[in-house]
């Protein structure tokens, strides 16, 4: 197999026995050994067990048994998602010794289809961050320029796919954590609609926004993965009971005659001019494919960041309360119960996690609940209505995934607000609970730029359809970092 082969190509090669599953594991193992020290994309690897499972797949294939189209394909997992027998740290020291006894539903479905977990990806601790600098296992580096961030919080997953350290990754997106790394690292990443994929077995950050989704080389690869992981799960009360389309068939349909909403708020002064030019060029490509551009407005977009950073810390403070060194987490020795709590949490959480817990606890406290949390929930409803009204006029909405290219490591370390603003274009879709895909659409100063394609809730086939046809018409997704 060639370097940077798509999941679809790996599937064809394995099915025809041009390569074996063991050879696939060895290929990515060799890449990880050679390249991961430069990037720090993996916290934990599980090569030996993956190779053993691969040998079983090979025996079944030789025996002529019926196997799925992803059987024998190695993949990585963001370290906030539970994997049986492989430690899941959440990239925080407080869970350094945690080894789940079960798989999350999404991972179980992939393993049941024969896909092979080869390791756990580094991330911002518990998903708190936009740069992957808030991991207690060290920052992840961008494969295109190791002096820059890979985006967060799923930066390890984005970097691993971009550097060909796994065929695909399963990550988690709360407010852009799949799309931002996909944009900064030049790969494809899908935030599914809230409820499309089960959240069971994912460490909760903000339970009303969290979604598990794939990062891969192409939109077609994502469609293949989604076919295996999507659907209702009785173990997750928030998972949607809804019919699943045949995603790989749906994405083949033409985009001619469909309408693309172009929101004026996503092309404001906050957007770097060079990014704007690249994204507008991508939009013109869709016009050449027969789609039409329709100017629209999403008037409450400017309130999205403020709304997000009230609601998410509130849910953080509740969800992370259990990690105290007593009920869960690494316990630090101390003289009494109070100091056991404080020492365990002080040493177990990075500063960004502590900041969000404090913000959330304040916003939920007596006298402030109505002024902050309740008002933010009302604004969230207005943001969702903006999208509902827009989708009455257009099929999808497009804009940039990020206001700029990947920034330098440490550039925003002392300015949390500036760090939060990096998510200005990805947060609104998360608050609305809709689906959104980021695909590479060009370069600025040698760094990738992402195009964000947003679709109505539970209509993932629409962004994937546009993304697939864009990648058939362009070659940005076939350009890879020199490592």
Automatic annotation (TrEMBL):
Enzyme class: ligase
Domain of life according to the entry: Bacteria
PROSITE patterns per UniProt: AMIDASES
Keyword ATP-binding belongs to the record: yes
EC annotation from Swiss-Prot or TrEMBL: 6.3.5.7
Keywords: ATP-binding, Ligase, Nucleotide-binding, Protein biosynthesis
GO MF annotations, alphabetized: ATP binding; glutaminyl-tRNA synthase (glutamine-hydrolyzing) activity
GO cellular component, one term: glutamyl-tRNA(Gln) amidotransferase complex
Domain Amidase: 23-462
Reaction catalysed by this enzyme: L-glutamyl-tRNA(Gln) + L-glutamine + ATP + H2O = L-glutaminyl-tRNA(Gln) + L-glutamate + ADP + phosphate + H(+)
InterPro entries cross-referenced by the UniProt entry: Amidase (IPR000120), Amidase_CS (IPR020556), Amidase_dom (IPR023631), AS_sf (IPR036928), GatA (IPR004412)
Active site: 78, 153, 177
Pfam families from the UniProt entry: Amidase
GO biological process, one term: translation
Assembly notes: Heterotrimer of A, B and C subunits.
Job description of the protein: Allows the formation of correctly charged Gln-tRNA(Gln) through the transamidation of misacylated Glu-tRNA(Gln) in organisms which lack glutaminyl-tRNA synthetase. The reaction takes place in the presence of glutamine and ATP through an activated gamma-phospho-Glu-tRNA(Gln).
Family of the protein in this entry: Belongs to the amidase family. GatA subfamily.
Name assigned to this protein: Glutamyl-tRNA(Gln) amidotransferase subunit A
Taxonomic placement: Bacteria, Candidatus Magasanikiibacteriota
């Amino acid at each position: 197999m060639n370097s940077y082969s798509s999941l679809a190509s790996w599937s064809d090669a394995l099915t025809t026995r041009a390569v074996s599953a063991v050879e696939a594991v060895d290929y990515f193992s060799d890449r990880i050994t050679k390249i991961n020290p430069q990037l720090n994309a993996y916290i934990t690897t599980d090569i030996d067990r993956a190779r053993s499972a691969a040998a079983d797949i090979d025996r079944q294939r030789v025996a002529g048994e019926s196997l799925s189209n992803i059987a024998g394909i190695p993949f990585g997992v963001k370290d906030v998602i539970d994997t049986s027998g492989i430690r899941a740290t959440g990239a925080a020291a407080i869970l350094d010794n945690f080894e789940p006894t079960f798989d999350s539903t999404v991972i179980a479905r992939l393993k049941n289809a024969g896909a092979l977990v080869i390791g756990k990806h580094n991330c911002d601790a518990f998903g708190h961050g936009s740069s992957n600098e808030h991991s207690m296992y060290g920052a992840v580096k961008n494969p295109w320029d190791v002096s820059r961030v890979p985006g967060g919080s799923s930066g390890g997953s984005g970097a691993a796919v971009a550097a060909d350290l796994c065929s695909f990754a399963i990550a988690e997106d709360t407010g852009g954590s799949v799309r931002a790394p996909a944009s900064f690292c030049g790969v494809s990443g899908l935030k599914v609609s809230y409820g499309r994929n089960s959240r069971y077995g994912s460490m909760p950050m903000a339970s009303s926004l969290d979604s598990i989704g794939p990062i891969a080389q192409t939109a077609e690869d994502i469609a293949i993965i989604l076919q295996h992981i999507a659907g209702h799960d009785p173990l997750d009360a928030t998972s949607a009971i809804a019919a699943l389309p045949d995603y790989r068939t749906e994405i083949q349909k033409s985009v001619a005659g469909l309408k693309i909403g172009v929101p004026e708020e996503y092309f404001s002064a906050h957007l770097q001019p060079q990014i704007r030019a690249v994204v507008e060029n991508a939009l013109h490509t869709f016009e050449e494919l027969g789609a039409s551009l329709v100017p629209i407005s999403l008037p409450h977009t400017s309130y999205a960041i403020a709304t997000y950073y009230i609601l998410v810390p509130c849910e953080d403070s509740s969800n992370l309360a259990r990690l105290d060194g007593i009920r869960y987490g690494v316990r630090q020795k101390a003289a009494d119960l109070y100091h056991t709590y404080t020492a365990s949490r002080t040493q177990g959480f990075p500063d960004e996690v502590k900041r969000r817990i404090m913000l959330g606890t304040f916003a939920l406290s007596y006298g402030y609940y109505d002024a902050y949390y309740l008002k933010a929930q009302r604004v969230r409803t207005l943001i969702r209505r903006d999208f509902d009204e827009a989708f009455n006029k257009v099929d999808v909405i497009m804009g940039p995934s990020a206001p700029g290219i990947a920034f330098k490591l440490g550039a925003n370390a002392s300015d949390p607000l500036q760090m939060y603003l990096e998510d200005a274009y990805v947060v609104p879709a998360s608050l609305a609970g809709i689906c959104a895909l980021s695909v590479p659409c060009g370069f600025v100063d040698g760094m990738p730029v992402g195009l964000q394609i947003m679709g109505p809730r539970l209509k993932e086939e629409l962004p994937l359809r546009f993304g697939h046809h864009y990648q058939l018409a362009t070659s940005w997704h076939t350009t890879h970092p020199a490592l």
